[in-house]
Design a protein that fits this description.
about 80 residues, alpha+beta, three-stranded antiparallel β-sheet, 1 helix, 3 strands
Length: about 80
């Protein structure tokens, strides 16, 4: 199963990866759209908490966060919103 409907949820997997607004989980800047492990139920998504993050993964998470922030800031400058 490659995708799970948000309204029906995923019954065959524990969680899926989905780009959602960060709430600060895993040290990612709040408000940034980022791919997190989530569960979906009744049209709502929830970021899965407490998954182990090793040093290699932390480095990649931080690098991706930095790139997304730079891209967001560049886009905001281009439209004159910053």
């Amino acid at each position: 199963q490659l995708a799970c409907p948000l309204d029906l949820g995923c019954h065959s997997v524990e969680h899926v990866s989905m780009g959602v607004y960060s709430d600060g989980s895993y040290g990612i800047q709040a408000g940034l759209v980022y791919s997190f492990p989530v569960t979906c139920k009744a049209g709502e998504w929830t970021i899965v908490q407490g998954l182990a993050v090793d040093d290699f993964s932390r480095e990649k998470l931080t690098l991706t966060e930095k790139e997304l922030i730079e891209e967001r800031d560049t886009a905001m400058e281009l439209i004159g919103a910053k």
